[in-house]
Structure formats: C-alpha cells, structure tokens
Amino acid sequence: MNRFVGSFFLMCLAAPVATPAIAQATAANAQQPMSIVASPASKRDMAHAIIDIMFPPAQREAMMDKLISDMMTPIRQNMPSTGFTDPGLKALLNTFMDKVQAQQQQQIQKHFPELLDAMATAYTNAFSMDELRDVLTFALTPSGGRYLSRSVTLASDPAVAKVYSAMIVEGNALNKPLLEQFKTQVMDYLKAHPEVAQKMAAQAKGK
Predict the structure, then answer these.
(1) What is the pLDDT of residues 132-152, one digit of tens each?
(2) Going by C-beta distance under 8 Å and a sequence separation of 6 or more, which residues neighbour residue 187?
(3) Is the pTM of this model over 0.90?
C-alpha cells in the first residue's frame, strides 16, 4: 500500500484545490516585484519561486488531504467484494481503510517539505538559469500561475480517474493468479526447508 501511495503521489503530486484559492494565490504571486526575474537570484531561488506558485504554501495542507482522498476513492471502490457483504465485515474494512488514509495523510504531510526541496534540486539540475527565468516569468502571469497550479492536478480529473479505476480492476485480475502461484511456491519452499520456517516464526515472535 505504501509503495502504491508513493507511486501515485509522485505521478499526480497534488489534488485540485478550489479555483478561488488558486486564483488568490496566483494573484498574490503576480503582485510580487518582477525584479525577482531580473535579479541575480540563484537557480535554486528561481526553482523555489516556481514551486511556491505550483503549490501555494497556504493551500498545501488542503491539497495533500484532497490528494489522499482522491487516491483512496478508487481503491475503496475496487476492493474485492467477496467476503465483505456482511455489515460487520464491511465496517471493519471501512475502519481499516480510514486508518490507512489517515496514516498516509500524516506521512505525506511529514515528507512534503522535503519532497518540494528535492523538486527544487531536480529543477536546478534539469534547467538552465535562463530557462528557469523564462518559466518563472510565465508563472508570474495569471495564465501561467493557473496553468502550473492545475497542470499537476490532472491525474484526479474524472476522465483520468475513470481510466485509473479500470486499471485497478484489470490489475487485480491479472495479479490474482500470480499471487496464488507465489503463495504456493512459498509454502512449498517452507515445507522443503523447515529450518527457514522456524527462523521466520522465531523472528515474528521477537517482534
């Protein structure tokens, strides 16, 4: 689950926030002196200025919460229904998924500043000073700010989410026989190597 969350997170990076919030953040950045573009600022300063427009600091927490919510929705919808028709089991499953969602929210909130700083490093590695200045100049315009704010949210657009949901269903179907085969292979291996099974059992008790 954590690996899946991480992959999806890196794919979409943020979920949509309300248009007024984006507009306000973009306007605030547009009011900044254009001197930052002409100044001898470092490439890293340029990169962070761009990222601040993509992810307005005042909106980041809401963006991350929305990301997790949008990400968990198709997972919940495509959980295997077999065995969970009972109300009690459904309640247990929902509680489990709620806990997973809350845990992922805490994890992403914890590491998001680190991720943004890493993104700034990636920008400085990938683009020249002139290119970063061109991007920032565009970002400081209303259209540029809106483009950057929304371009990273398209993974949660209903059209994209529909395909993503279908991919989960297909992936589950494809993985099921592989998982069953893997489980059989593991059980056969442990039967053939009881010392490994004993070691694993001892390690489990030690935890």
Answers:
(1) 999 999 989 989 988 887 776
(2) none
(3) no
Look-up of token digits 């994209």: 160
195 class by beta-carbon count within 10 Å (0-12 exposed, 13-18 middle, 19+ buried): exposed
Contact between 156 and 12 (Cβ < 8 Å): yes
Segment 93-119 shows an average pLDDT of: 85
Q: Where are the alpha helices (DSSP H) in 78-157?
A: 87-126, 129-139, 142-151
Rounded Cα distance between 154 and 70, Å, is 12
Q: Which two tokens stand for residue 189?
A: 């291996």
Compute CA distances 180 → 90, 187, 201, whole Å. 24, 11, 22
Cα distances from 47 to residues 71, 115, 128, 144, in angstroms, run 27, 13, 11, 15
DSSP states of 33-60 = -THHHHS---HHHHHHHHHHHHS-GGGH
